[in-house]
Amino acid sequence: MEISVLQKARAAYEPKLPPAFVNGALMTVEKSAPTESIGDQESIKKLFPANYGKPILEFSAGEQKKAPKPINVGVILSGGQAPGGHNVIAGIFDGLRSINDKCKLYGFLGGPSGLVDNESIEITEELVKQYRNTGGFDMIASGRTKLETPEQFEKAAKNCKKLGISALVIVGGDDSNTNACLLAEHFCMKKNPIQVIGCPKTIDGDLKNEFVETSFGFDTACKVYSELIGNIARDADSARKYWHFIKLMGRTASHITLECALQTHPNIALISEEVAKKKQTLSDIVEDIVKVIGKRAKKKRNFGIVLIPEGLIEFIPEIKKLINELNEIMTKDEAALNFLKTDEDKTSFIRGKLSNEAASVYVSMPMQIQIQLIKDRDPHGNVQVSMIETEKLLAQMVENRINTLKSQGKSDVKDVKFKAQCHFMGYEGRCAAPSNFDADYCYTLGATAAALVGSGSTGYMAAVRNLTKASDQWMSVGIPITMMMNMERRHGKEKPVIQKSLVYLAGKVFKEFAENRDKWATETEYLYPGPIQYFGPTEVCDQPTKTIVLECG
Known about the structure:
Layout (H helix, E strand, L loop, with lengths): L4 H7 L16 E7 L6 H7 L7 E6 L11 E6 L7 H15 L4 E5 L3 H6 L2 E4 L1 H7 L18 H14 L1 E8 L1 H16 L5 E6 L17 H22 L3 E6 L6 H10 L3 E2 L2 H7 L3 H17 L5 E6 L2 H4 L1 H16 L1 H6 L3 H11 L2 H9 L2 H9 L14 H18 L12 E6 L10 H19 L5 E6 L9 E6 L4 E6 L2 E6 L9 H15 L15 H4 L4 H7 L1
Parallel strand pairs: 3-4, 3-6, 6-7, 7-12, 8-10, 8-11, 9-10
Antiparallel strand pairs: 1-2, 2-13, 4-5, 12-13, 14-15
Helix pairs in contact: 3-5, 3-19, 8-9, 9-20, 11-18, 13-16
């Protein structure tokens, strides 16, 4: 397989490990007092009697020795891709070999479905060598199958037994790690001695808390997006005739948009959580954007950058109401809607079924968005919110509003010359070669997962603390997954879930943004981060995100 010059150089990079691993992954373990879940303690305890209340585990260097018996371990990559996944696997592989040279690591193909369908490969030294410090999940691929039924759990146990596997490491986001805990509980209750360990992965940055400082991939993805935003910003300042509306990943939380704003200083960055708190309407948001455009136009700056989180639309109360009504109409009147031939007939039919408030919002949208809202549906017949081109919606509505104000002779937009360019940055950041931070962090997460396996633990998530410091001050820990859980209503049922982390509007990260955004709005103070640097001084190559520095530094 031919590889690029950069890949060759990156293959030689040796990720840094905390000093606790000096003698390998058979380590000394210090235990905390018993723990409890962050909420709904009685409900979580009832659902996870075998795993609830476990202590936090803190690892330090053990003796230089090997385990008398080898361990076979399976690894699963679950959910969307994130930079650094291959280094997690490399960290597990090397950690297991430090426990016993004959340990084996199996990769289940295509995510959790590989475990259920018994599709796997043995991960060898030669295979790991090809993928060290590379992006993507292509070594074993990923998938979104949920592990949540007793039937799946029994198939998993059966397939692990065939391979002699006594431990599973599930690499994924909050849902995947919740399912890992369900699997661990099932094995415990069935007295099946298969350990289950989780690793925190998501570029969205919403799997974090006081114990998990950041999820892997967030650092690299934000640096990739920020490079592209910086390039576009420089182009905007060069051409001086376009407003660029840029949608970024992050459906449930706006961490990516906030981090990219701190890295690039856009003129406008919308934060979904703030929109929800202020109960802003779609027209409120449009009006705010128009005001900034007008102020910049008076300074002869008819160009700018607007950052938009992917999930913004779901945080606008009036849009939530509209989507709920649309879901109900499209389910109840599906046959009648499908009978209509033209898009005009379908949108007209929908308008007649909506409440006055929802209809008013619906007709305020460009026709292409009205059509999109009733065409793109998930398998349950609901609106696919993530498919809505929010960047185009806002750009069109801003243009319409500017034209309306001009026709009314409003002085605020007299100098405005508005042209929009729309972009969506998503897949560009998910499989990039990991930054040095993510390469080191992911390798340490994998080694920590191996240490958890070596300690005989189950129902734990691998975590690393002190990430804003040099790696020789990092600490590897195991966090009971039940500790991060509460109960939430999902699809009409109360379910245990790891609580998602939204942007904290009273926190240091948002405050840093809020203190500067008015200046960034009217001035042109773009930052140009440039591409990720892998070789050079520490202050250039090894810096973590501004988010983690502000939160944990």
